[in-house]
Design a protein that fits this description.
The chain has about 425 residues and is an alpha/beta fold. The chain contains 12 helices and 20 strands. Strands 1, 4, 13, 14, 15, 16, 17, 18, 19 and 20 form a 10-stranded mixed β-sheet that branches. The chain has an 8-stranded parallel β-barrel with strand order 5-6-7-8-9-10-11-12. Strands 2-3 form a two-stranded antiparallel ribbon. Bound molecules: pyridoxal-5'-phosphate.
Amino acid sequence: MERVQPESLPGMTPTNTKTACADAGGLDGVDLPALANRVGTPCYAYSAGTIRQRAGDLQAALRGLDAGVCYAVKANSNLAILQLMAEAGFGADIVSGGELWRSLRAGIPPERIVFSGVGKTAGEIAEALEAGIARFNVESEDELHLLERLAAERGTVVRASVRVNPDVDANTHAKISTGKSANKFGVGIDEARNWFAASAALMHVRLDGLHVHIGSQMLSLDPIREALQRVAAFRRELVAAGHPIDCIDVGGGLGVCYREGRDRPVAIEDYGDVIRDTLADFSGRILLEPGRWLVAGAGVLLTKVIRVKRGRERQFLVVDAAMTDLLRPSLYDAWHDIVPVTREPRPLQRYDVVGPVCETSDTFARDRELPRCEPGELLLIRTTGAYGSSMGSTFNSRPLAPEVLLDRGRYAVVRRRQTLEEMIAGERPAQQWESA
Ligand SMILES: Cc1ncc(COP(=O)(O)O)c(C=O)c1O
């Protein structure tokens, strides 16, 4: 993939900023008001320095382990972000043919790609087989047999892990909890046991791995430890029954600080220790699938106040970003810190920060105390590097927002603002009618 050449803003000196600091109107050495003038708002800005730092910290926490990181592409699937992951030596955890295509396009080697997800279609499995990915995280018996058939048709033997649903509560938002038996993900240990017992009949699937992912935005290590303990015990049982396990994929799920002063993410070293402790007697390959933890804090969504609307009961700050750009608050009532870029002291006021979309749920914050804002004010919606742009849509015919990568005082537009023509590409008036 070709690299986009970064640009410098006038009057900017490239710095060696390693981590994001969006507090002084700058991020990764780039002046955000100047950037907003150049690129327009709403706009996502990501700090490459912060992502590299996170990647390095994770690698340090895993030192001594035979561990590989497969970045969860869904968190932020921009090619430039994937390229940073490839440069860090990371692979990819994908959940669709589209994510496979993007990952390969960004230069992630197929042998570092794992494929998760409950709804892999025959077409997607075939594409992944042809690409030669590392392994499939299989989530149902039907999928296992489909994989066997498609691998047989290609005369190949593929590695697979069983995604175990350990029935552990991740203590996170119900909509991002994946490890309870009521959730659609994975299979219970009883069912997994039966798969291994019958695995001698599989000629084209080598069932030699266990996978677990119990949820996202976890701020405690307890559920992770519990899930890994169950997986570790199950592995011992399988080995004793003559089923060697070469790979354990511990999933992703580590939480980040969305609300300064409230959210207390776990220390990455402690996470490394939980893996080390729970899998102490396992000498095979360990995979991790972090998404949010690597990229969330690296991103901000820049948005301008369109108008201040004084309602009868509340004051609304109507901004030019919407739920189409950042869905998390509408979808999960998620909190994102919102700050004006200019930090001059002003009286505080309470606002509902809302977007222009015709849904009441198009609300970024309710009754939030902010310095008094005027139309045109530039705001930062923080911690939006994960599950932000990747969940974007064109609802209300709003073109997708641009994304910019910042690196030591320079910026590169890594997705330009979608044009109206691009937004309707593929649509046409019904003229040619056919019979099916
Ligand atoms: C299978 C799997 N792995 C990894 C992840 C990444 O999770 P997170 O972004 O919380 O690290 C997800 C997220 O939904 C997932 O479903």
